[in-house]
Amino acid sequence: MGGLNTTLLVGMQALEATQGALAATSNNIANANTPGYTREVPQFSENEQSISGSDVSGGGVSLEGLQSVRDELLNLQIQNQTSLQSSVDMQSSTLQQIQSYFSSTSGDDISSELAAFSSSLSQLSATPTSAAAQQGVISTGQDLANAFNTTANGLTSAQSYADGQVTQTVAQINSLTQQIAQLNGQLAQTSTTVNDGGTVEDQRDELVQQLSALTGISITQSNDGETITTGNGTPLVMGSQSFTLQTTTGSDGMQQVLDSTGKNITASIQGGTLGGAIQVRDQTIPGILTQLNTLASQFATAFNAAQAKGFDSNGNAGQNFFSVPVNPANAASGISVSISNPALVAISSDGSAGSNGNVANLSAAVSGALPSGSTPADSYANVVFQVGTAASNATAQSTAIGLNLQQLTTQQGSVSAVSTDEEASNLILFQTAYEAAARIVSTIQQLNTVTLDMGTTGGY
Amino acid sequence: MRVDPNMVPDMLSAIQQSQTSLNTALEQVATGKSVNVPSDNPSAAANMVQNTIETASVDQYTQNVSGVLSTVQTADSALSSVVSSLTQAVSLGTEGANGTSSTSNQQAIAVQVQGILSSVLSQANMSYQGAYLFGGTASTAAPYTVDSASPSGYTYNGNNDVNSVQVGDQMNVQVNLPGSQIFSNSSANVLGSLSSLVSALQSGSTSAISTATNAVSAALGYVSQQRVFYGNAESQLNSQETYLQQETVSLASQQNSLVGVDEAAAATNLNQAETDNSAALAAAAKVLPNTLLSYLAPPT
Q: Can you give the residue range of the structural domain that contains A374?
């Protein structure tokens, strides 16, 4: 009789195991679109056979558990590339904003206004006594100063936008590291019993992935869970403990990032939105601004010097045409035309109203070499080239990393993603298996009934 | 090997990519430019800075040339009429110096020469668009006014300076000669010699008339020489105008090659991008809804 009962037990085990597998399948289907979810595969194993004399019976099946299918190396690579990508994206989007100020299609950029100013001077050369031509020089000079102001202000506002990003991103990083530390704590408890962290590990990996988009990180595994540091080694998470980053306003008015001990780590942060924002804020934009400021101040000085060489329409020595703030860092944003009376343009070289002798000096200040060694047009062209190159490089890098990332994600998907087709066929598989196991149980039940009824009905 | 079951990201990125090319192609066709922001082609954008400035300059130089050309032509025609006036004065003087000329004849000639003198004076005070042509750079006041204290009877109010007008990056053309050089030069004073001729005719002294006529004749020769300057300036300006026209064309063609777009190529690109985009969309629509479930019979 032991034989039938053993078979019943085997059938029961099969029912349980298949039920577990069906549950795994339904959970896979349910989470098919959950970010960070890795598919779970039921782990069946056959039980030991029992042999007693000539009676051999199978031990049945048991469901060891569910194994999440994940590739840690791929995860690391994806985190790495994500950091790079979001850094480059941050730079690219800022540069795209900035470069519109340097586009000559608008017609009111510095090059167009410089051209108009130069033309108005040349017109003055032909008609030195025309009030309209004199007024033209004043107006185009104001337009040029405005173009400098607009461009510099555009750069500054992009810079403060990036600065705002630094504060926001640091807050997000802190919230994420806290959650990761918490999950690490949970994992440390569960992983003692089961080898796989399952859904908790999925959640943690997803958060780490989000963290890697914010700043470049490096991860090391240890007995008490993952240790996450920034690229240069500032700890963010150690096991179940998280370390908070802080921001403080620096001497230049920009937000500086401090680690949990208060050390300034701003310059060493790379990668992620945070790294990109800091790069754009502290390197890219100041680089362009400095050149614009130098150009504005040298140009104004050269033009004022040319004004001083001549006489205005009243026969007085030429006054300053442009005024520039004393602080060289504000030259481009603060340059303005300091005279409003057209008669004050120093056209004459000999003091008589009809002379145009000084116009040549004024024109030479616009087209000649500045102390920097190149002409205003060349200096500005150089800035345009740098902005354009930086923007196009950032975009190209973003595209390249994007492709790389896409490939990695596809690889990860091939390992970990839920395939509805696969789950549908598993569903059929487990359905059939469950039906078969149920049939075993009902068959044994019938056999038991037959055995129990032996001798009562029918008859031997 | 297992394949990535999730086709959505790939599909989306393909659609996005074709959308980007579509946008670029559309922008190029719509604007006629291949460089709309510096990142489209940084070096072309940088070169365009110089091109923009040069184009504006050449436009202005062209306007300057035509403006200055009229001034120079006006001055030249003023001098031309001075020359013919002086020629007439010389022949009148010669007639007056002739011994057979009666006193009343000489008086009549004197009146004629006086008329010539005022005509020459008005030419010397010629203005163009409000600026006196022969006052040096002092162009706001009439160069010559009557002054009985002066030996010639007229004072020069101008100066000895000249203006040069910029008509090219490296080219300035001198556009005037001061009146002091043309009309009241120490060696050949036009106004002075005419005044002397009038006085000599009025006095009736043939020898004085003859001396004065010689002086007018010398002034005539001198003025004719000075006219050469204006002729030169005119021809310089004319050739500069031709050069500037060529320059305008070559700058426009440079601009076109830097940031312009080949219309045919742009239209083809647009067409291609449209096709790519439709293909990506069609593929997504065809593939995405297809799963095993579509073929499984619903559970009974």
A: 76-407
